[in-house]
Amino acid sequence: MMSDVRLSAAPPSLCEVTASPTGCGFHGNEPPAFVLPPRNVRVSLGGDARLEGKVRGQPEPQVTWYRDGKAVIGGGRCSVERGGRGTFSLLVGGVTEEDLGCYTCQATNEAGSRQVTVEILLEGTSPYFTHISGSKTILSCMSSSSAMENRTSIWSESPPKFISKPSRVLVRLGQSGKFSTKATGRPQPQVTWYKGEAELQSSGRISVFELSGRHFLEIKEVQAEDAGSYTCSVTNSAGAATASAELIVQ
Which stretches make up the Ig-like domain (predicted)? Predict the structure, then answer.
C-alpha cells in the first residue's frame, strides 16, 4: 500500500440523467439541481478518493450514492457525508483495485430526481465514455490513456457563455417585471438569479423558471423596494459567467 496520497480532478462524467419532475411548480417545490456536480477523481492505490458536490432543491434533496446498482452505505473505508447548504461527499479511504470504477450520485425530492455518474480512476488511466447503440446507452470504462485522446470533441468541456443577456426592465408599481436570458456551455450551465448577494428562488411574488431553453426571473406586483440591479450567474464545471441588468420602477 502506498503511503503518499495523490489526487487530481479529471473531467466530469459524460453521463448525466435527469428524471422528469413529478411536482415542479406545486407548493413552491423545486426539483434537484447540481450546483456543483461531482467530478471524476484520480488516485494511487492506497490513497483516499473523495467525490463531492453541491445540490439544491425544495424540499432539500436526499442524496444517495450507488455502485453497481446498490446503495453505498457508510462504514469501514467508506464515509457518506452531508454538510450544510447542500454540500455532500463520498470518501473512500485506502483505495484498492476493487474500489475503482463508476459511482452514481442521485439527488431526490418530492419535485423530481437527478443523477450524475462519475468515476474513481487509477493514476494514468482515462475515464469511461458513452456511446449510443440503437435504443441503449452503453457505458465503457477505458484503461488506455490513448483512448482518451481519441474521444471526439463533442464530449469536451466548454465554459458558460451568454447567447442573450438580461436587459433593463422598466415597470410601473403593481405590474410584473420579467428578466430573461439564454446561455450555452458543456455541461449545461446551472442558472442562478441574485439581487445583490441574495439568491432568488421561486417564492411569493418571485418566480424563477425555464421555458424553451430560456431562463426567466419574474417579479409580480412590483413594489418600490424591488428596484435595483439583478444578476444572472451561469455556472458549470468548466467556468462561470455573470450578467446584470436594472429593474426600474416608474
Answer: 32-117, 160-248
Model confidence over 45-58: pLDDT tens digits?
999 999 999 999 99
List the domain boundaries for the chain: 7-154, 159-249
Q: Rounded to an integer, what is the distance from CA 84 to the centroid of its chain?
A: 17
Note the pLDDT tens digit of each residue in 136-146: 333 433 333 22
Residue range 7-154 forms a domain whose CATH class is: mainly beta
- pTM flag (> 0.70): no
- Sort strands 206-211 and 198-200 into parallel, antiparallel or unpaired: unpaired
Contact 230, 245 (CB under 8 A): yes
Residue 189 CA to residue 185 CA, distance in Å, equals 6
Backbone dihedral region of 30: left (phi > 0), alpha (psi from -120 to 50 degrees) or beta?
beta
Q: What percent of the chain has pLDDT over 90?
A: 39
Distance CA 189, CA 183 (A): 7
Q: Do 229 and 246 touch, CB atoms closer than 8 A?
A: yes
* CA gap 154, 30 in Å, rounded: 30
| 159-249 placed in CATH 3.40.50.720 | no
Question: Cα–Cα distance between 243 and 162 in angstroms, integer?
Answer: 8
Cell numbers representing residue 225 in the block: 423596494
User: Do 243 and 165 form a contact (C-beta atoms < 8 A)?
Assistant: yes
Please name the amino acid found at residue 170: L
What is residue 124's DSSP assignment?
Answer: T
Say if residues 171 and 250 touch (Cβ distance below 8 Å).
Answer: yes
Tell me whether the omega of the peptide bond preceding residue 127 falls within 30 degrees of 0, making it cis.
Answer: no
